Amino acid sequence: MKPENLSEFSDENLILEYKKIKSNKIIFSFIIGITIGIFFYSYVKNGFGFFTFFPLIIGYLLIKNSGNSKLLEKEIMKEISKFKLNKQYKIVQILMKLL
């Protein structure tokens, strides 16, 4: 998903996307921890070798991908705040009409 398409979503969909990103962060953190653990186990068991660094490469790719999700998370929060401001503005307009 690209940040340009976020304005087309409703506020409920934005909140769902935000929750997905949060759960993905937890999953990525767990996988990164596992890859670091595999690296250390492989180092202790076999020493440095060609296959020792594969888990670190996978961890690096996950960390690189998490940078994209941080950007997307910021954009989603901006859109959610816009929806909240629009709702508050509409409520104020309705109240002003009643007065």
From TrEMBL:
Transmembrane annotation, as ranges: 26-44, 50-67
Organism annotation: Flavobacterium sinopsychrotolerans
Entry keyword Transmembrane helix: yes
Keywords from the named record: Membrane, Transmembrane, Transmembrane helix
Protein's UniProt name: FUSC family protein
